[in-house]
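seq:
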Amino acid sequence: MQRLILVSNRLPVTVEKRKGEIHFKQSVGGLATGLSSFYQTYNSLWFGWCGLPSNHVKGNERRTIEKRLREHHASHTLFISRNDQRLFYSGFCNKTIWPLFHYFTEYAEFQQNLWQSYVRVNRLFCHQLLDIIGPEDIVWIHDYHLMLLPHMLREKLPATQIGFFLHIPFPSYEIFRLLPWRQEILNGILGSDLIGFHTYDYVRHFTSSVRRLLGYEHTFGQIALEHRVAKVDAFPMGIDTERFSTAQSDSKWINDLQIKCRQNNCGIILSIDRLDYTKGIIQRLKTFRYFLEKYPEFQNRVTLILIAVPSRTGVRTYQMQKQQIDEMVGQINGQFGTLGWMPVWYFYRQMPFHNLVDLYRMGDVALVTPLRDGMNLVAKEYLASRTDNMGVLVLSEMAGAAHELSEAIIVNPNHMDEVADALQTALGMPAEEQKERNRVMQQRIQRYNVVTWAEDFMDRLAHARSMRDELGARILSEDTQAYLEKEYHRGRSRLIFLDYDGTLVPFAPQPDQAKPDPELDGLLEKLTQDPKNEVVIISGRDRETLEKWLGRFNVGMSAEHGVWVMERSGHWHMLEPIQDAWKDEIRPVMERFVDRTPGSFIEEKSFSLVWHYRKADPELGLIRASELKDTLLGLTANLNLVVSEGSKVLEVKHGGVNKGRASQFWTMEKKWDFIMAIGDDWTDEDLFEAMPEHAFSIKVGVGLSKARFYVLGHQRVRELLMQLTKQKAKV
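struct:
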């Protein structure tokens, strides 16, 4: 029976040991709170750390904990040593990944022992999960603590559905590249079938880093890996809106607080956050002080309720933050406070749920201004709690939630004047405008709540699985290859079309660096020695290069995508007469783009011009390629020319010739018993389309194709061809 296995660093239940007794309590955190209403509706199991160090738990206690978790919380725990807890969680997770991914590079530490602990704990998760995961189970891994786990599981369980969601920002390439173990992290995440982020900004940053550091391209959210495709998409996490909108008030507590805060008819600004430097609490206090100075009419008329929830109290950086906040609250109250009015009400504590909702309902303004935040659910919780539709949300543009909640007052948290002006606007906003803004945002977060978010992710994961299965059905399997080999040996006349770059050899930074290596030489020698074989190299290369590199073999050739053809031991001739006078008009345009794109260059062939950008900056290369293509399409609209895209190239050539037409020079020659065509890019699609129905057309790599089958990489092509040369025809 299929199960959903949720995997995160911490379980939704925390286990504590006090005075020798085991206690269970609900975990605090957005993930545990958000998914608690979802995973219990599924046939699911939550796997993670319970919170107790392994060296603090005796054997009988461990069994008791595991039994209680399985029976009452549908959870399964593992135990981490205190040392790994320190190095893994407090160390690499919160001293390396957390500051780096939130753009606080000055706090990031790059220590080998922290990284080693991170790898070790991810392996521990993998090892214990292997005993739990069934053949039909779905695995959904969460957050930055376990970014290596998807790849580790993929190596052991290649058929398992694996999803991964990152709940913090993914930084831009320029920030991410600072991480010494950047490639390992990317490869770890890419073990997933589906990778989710809160916003498309993070998707873009991730795919940019993958392209720049690993060389994998992406199309419409699909990253073509060596052996499969990984999907990447944005899923803005929601909340359990009903839980907040239907929560009952703690009337005594709220009445007492309102009486104290609303003396002199004060408005209430609400700030609720974990105590973390990414939340911008210190900057928020500075801005509030500036607001009181800039708009003195609000002195004695507004109170800031500041809730700072303790977080990572053992980390020195957080201890310093706490000290700074304490001092700044004292300074503001000392500077502006009076006997009847205290500007800042400061609470350093965890608030019970009902008190939290009461605070949301009491706040005239919610000031949510993190310096960097993956999503920020506080903004959504405030809106969901406001059943009166009143209140104003002032939201940082650096929070992922700002992409959804555009009706809020969006501010740059570093711009003190902008935030101060936003507070002045919010406190004076008419009731009808407040209701209209909130109505739109409330409807949006109700439609895309946490259950919808999770179900959306699961639906896309199922789609990614079906796409993988469909692709897998076309990948050249052992059975299909056995059938191909059988047909090959049965045939007495065989025609084999082979592309060159990306098919027989890997792509090289410079075209002249892709010369045949000894292995390829031996392979072509064996193929062409068989008198039953007609081998044709059908390439976009110029004829001089093909003849220089491959002329010593008994092969036919087609150069420049079909402009030139040459039979074995024959002479080059054109399929049809074409002109190249158009080059004088196109060449200057390409030269301008070479000047604007460092690393790019022009390759000139007899009847085509090729702009290469493999050595250019990947982002700039794609932008310039798009610009150049648009320009060339305009110039060639009335000419018999086509603008074709290859792997990191744009080529302008005559429109009347292609690989498909060139192949007919051989396919029309006689009736062949066996035909095979192998190529890697879209110029080979004309070749595949021209093949007869019984031919074996094979695309190198994944993606949409007219080919019947796929193989993954040029080395797989060589292995296939070598296998054909090794086998002996069956009598």
